[in-house]
Amino acid sequence: MRPSTARRVPPPVLSATLLLASLLPGCGRTEADLPTKPLTPAEYYIKSDMEKFRYKNITVRVPGSWGGVLLPEDAGPWGAPIWKAVHWGDVTTIMGLYNQALFELQHPRVKLEYIQFDMWSDNFKSALAVALKAKRAPAYYIARDLPQTIEQGLYADLTPLMKKWDQYELQPEGSRREGTYNGRIYTLAGNELGATIIKFRKDWFREAGILNERGEPGPPLNWTWDDFRRIAKRLTDPARKRYGYAAAIGGFSSVGYLYYVSSGLDTYVPDPTGKRTWVFNDKDPEMLRSLEIAREMVARDRSVLTSVSYGWTQWHSEFDASRAAMIAGFSPHPAREFLESPYKLGKDKPYGETVGMVPLPGHPSGYTPLRPVTNPIGFDPTLKPEELEAAFEWCKSWFYGDVFVNRVRAAADEARAKNRGSSLYVEMLCLPYKPKVNVLDKPLEEVFPPDYMDFYRRVRESHAPPLPREFGLREPPTNEMERALKAMYSEACTSNVDLRDLLRRTAALINNNLLNYRNPQDSERLRRWLDARTRFFKRWFPRYHDTVWQPRLAAYYRVP
Fold this sequence. Notes:
Blueprint: E1 8-9, H1 16-23, H2 41-45, H3 49-55, E2 58-63, E3 71-72, H4 81-88, H5 91-106, E4 110-115, H6 124-133, E5 140-142, H7 148-151, H8 159-163, H9 173-178, E6 180-181, E7 184-185, E8 188-189, E9 196-201, H10 202-208, H11 225-234, E10 245-248, H12 255-262, E11 268-270, E12 278-280, H13 285-301, E13 304-307, H14 312-320, E14 326-330, H15 332-340, H16 351-354, E15 355-359, E16 376-379, H17 385-400, H18 402-417, H19 424-430, H20 450-461, H21 478-494, H22 499-513, H23 522-540, H24 542-556
Parallel strand pairs: 2-4, 10-13
Antiparallel strand pairs: 1-3, 5-16, 6-7, 8-16, 9-14, 9-15, 11-12
């Protein structure tokens, strides 16, 4: 989830006096100036200003939008930006400066720099390439477009650091797999655990008498695609301008996408001819069925509120405006809205009693597409070993150490002063790691609705299947593949085109433009990947393994 940021500037790092001193002969930092024995914080603290300055020879640049803080851009009437933050009551910024000072005291060689760097824009990769070349990139940043960006060398190899990290195993399995390439680890799981969900209106379910096995309003606990379609039709009411589901017409959240995800379909499978590594999975009849389902729900059932221009913002707006009973989302969002906007849908509709969340529908055999994930973090590949280790230590402190504890406590104090819900509870609900100390004043069970707690229990217990990248297999470019699939589902829903012909055309497009490659070692790698997948399904979804995976494996996953 992208954090919101105001216009800020980095806090000053050096005074003019120290900067000038560093330029004078004999005053610059050299290895010869450094003590031969590492200094403890106490030993460092009693050194002179110039000795402290010379000793700090490891710089960690922290992005202001992800772990750092930035001072107000102007001083206003206060004389200096830092005083503006103080007199504003900007507790977050002041605590960020405190954490900067504390971390530098705990790690005397390290100097933190909070910098402005937009990692959320569309031109992120080009901006990052420029920053890396200029040696001004942040030490870490969002890892996007995996695994292609791993292949492009945009991230440092974290394998040695991961092997000695005591909380490595607490990373969500899906995140660990996403950042692993050919046995090496390139990303760190972020500090907000979540999963793709269906967010739904409890009050509409209650009104329609749709209750789960516990007698609560909502779909069955282990619902399937058939349940999803039936409920969407039942909750559609044209007279009241209500739809069962709102989504993009193609791509993520679309009904076609949900169908093939719930069925456990792969977009591409091994090329049985050996000419390529992969071919588009157009031979499996379930792929054609996903197109038929998308067309039927949009054009015949009319239970889906959609448009070719719909994106994340649009379908969430439809839900908030009470025009859709269900939408796709990300699990931390309802928990955050429950605390921070408890009457978002009206004074007579408390959020926890009105909005629920459940996993995506699964397969009748028991397979579920529930996947625990976080935002993956990659590190600057040009960092020296000591810089990389310092940046990794900072992230650990930011995730669950002193920086985390101080930050969430300050945020809770600020929320109490402003008489609003504290994000502390959301952070703890979604935290995949074990914090240094307990920061809660009451159990999460006393804060969140039971169904929210149950969902996160299921997320933490879920598992993710092995990915081709883990075995050194090249995967097609993510964005281009998503665009091709979105175009296919959009055409299926907005025209009368023959769906078999549409599938053939899409297969030719994808095979010739996105999958036209092969490595001589891929046959062996494919076999190892398929063996790992088979073991995964047999262990976690045995009925799916026996009734669905094994027949599919024999029919559509032949390795030459």
